[in-house]
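ARCHIVE CARD
Drawer: 12
Card no.: 0347
Subject: one protein chain, sequence and derived structure
Cross-reference: see card 0346
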Amino acid sequence: MRTPIRVSAAIVVGIAVAVAMMAHDRQSGAEWAISPEQIADAQGAGKPGVETGPGRFARHPVASEGADLLPVKWGLVGLFAACVVLAGTGRRRAPVARV
């Protein structure tokens, strides 16, 4: 396969995988330890917020500890996928004949 096509395919696949990982993490709520939806549900039920311990309530959303590293994770997974595509679309070398 020609090099510009290989590089283009690797870039497209890398971006697609990174965006898919981002969408999955956002849908599963990986960036929140206590999400705004949980607080709204608790306040709708008459509580002052989400109970984090006996008598302790969280009234504001709390980000998870790993939320700052999520963009790094998305980028590294996308980069790995791009490298796999780039290596996988390369030319096959003839096997070395053993005597």
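Annotation on reverse: The chain has a mean pLDDT of 89. The longest helix spans residues 3-28.
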